[in-house]
Design brief:
heterodimer; A: mainly beta; 11 strands; B: mainly beta; seven-stranded mixed beta sheet; four-stranded antiparallel beta sheet; globular
């Protein structure tokens, strides 16, 4: 069974700092790897989706990389802002929207 | 463009009862997936529907069931509720031209079982 782990569980940084969130998965047979953010009491917002054949995806200040062979993905956030404060979740898809989620990293950006 | 709509937003039930949750996907989206989120287990996949057919199912007991209608709206039902069913239930929709697309999530239904 696919297991997805995220480190660290929580992270607190001052505004403007660059940061990296880590995600690891045990089974490399994935279709894609997705990163989401979740604000308290709300659903998930898709940030980036990396197909299994891709190495990275970028959107604005966000960059996600994927290394299937080592079972790792990272989410890089540049020039962090207080509005980036949220829980970030990664998920490995094994088919038909069957996503295995990590436990998330709770990010706090301090003004 | 309206997002994914889930109703009701909150529900309180007692053990042994059954409950039905509703999800209206984004217009044009044909795939609807359901997920359970709890503090202990995190987010877990329940099932996915496409064109009224269940294509995939997670590892949940048969008390959890769902269906999709011809307009792509979906419902999930939990029978004989247990305390451990207390959770945030999220649905997500996608175009499903292929399988591997961004998912758009609703705000969820918070179910409390007393």
């Amino acid at each position: 069974k696919q297991e997805v782990t995220q480190i660290p569980a929580a992270l607190s940084v001052p505004e403007g700092e660059n940061l990296v969130l880590n995600c690891s998965f045990t089974d490399s047979a994935i279709y894609n790897l997705q990163w989401f953010r979740q604000d308290p009491g709300k659903g998930l917002t898709s940030l980036l989706l990396i197909q299994s054949s891709q190495r990275e995806q970028t959107s604005g200040r966000l960059n996600a990389s994927l290394d299937k062979s080592s079972g790792r993905s990272t989410l890089y956030i540049a020039a962090s802002q207080p509005g980036d404060s949220a829980t970030y979740l990664c998920a490995a898809e094994t088919g038909a929207n069957n996503l295995f989620f990590g436990t998330g990293t709770r990010l706090t950006v301090i003004p | 463009k309206a997002g994914v709509t889930q109703t009701p937003r909150y529900l309180i039930k007692t053990r042994g009862q059954q409950v039905t949750l509703s999800c209206s996907p984004i217009s044009g989206h044909r795939s609807v997936s359901w997920y359970q989120q709890t503090p202990g287990q995190g987010l877990q996949f329940l099932f996915e529907y496409f064109s009224e057919t269940q294509r995939n199912k997670g590892n949940f007991p048969g008390r959890f069931s769902g269906r999709q209608f011809s307009n792509s709206r979906s419902e999930m039902n939990v029978s004989t509720l247990e305390l451990g069913d207390s959770a945030l239930y999220l649905c997500a929709s996608s175009l499903a031209k292929g399988w591997h697309e961004k998912l758009f999530f609703g705000s969820g239904t918070q179910l409390s079982v007393l």
